[in-house]
Amino acid sequence: MASLSGGGRARRYGRLVSTAPISSARRCSRSACGRPAIATLTYVYADQTAVLGPLATYAEPHAYDLCSEHSQRMSAPRGWEVLRLATDLSPRGPSDDDLLALANAVREAARPVAPSAPPADETGSRETARRGHLRILAPEDPAPAH
Asked: Which of 26, 45, 81, 129 is most enclosed, with most CB atoms within 10 A?
């Protein structure tokens, strides 16, 4: 089927095809455009509205990812409204809240956990061991009488 020939190309069914690695970054949906996507375009057919907003978290089959050039030049069909949601294209570092949450998570993960006896259930026994879905129960020790 495929045989490697040098130079990052493979011979597949008698034709040379590129074996360049595929980037995990999302690219513009417009044909012949390889620029990175920065915005997502969706259509709301019931309202005849085209919504252009920040890049969606996940690629959706009914949405179109656009680069900065195509998102600026985008137009909608005649009679449709274009709704452009504010997008901030400047790269941002983590906010103070992000850093505080990260520091708290690290502190919580580093804190040792004190082992505790399993609580007694309503029958007066407590779980001492587990094997799969089965539990081994031991009777609760009665308090010594004085």
From this structure: 26
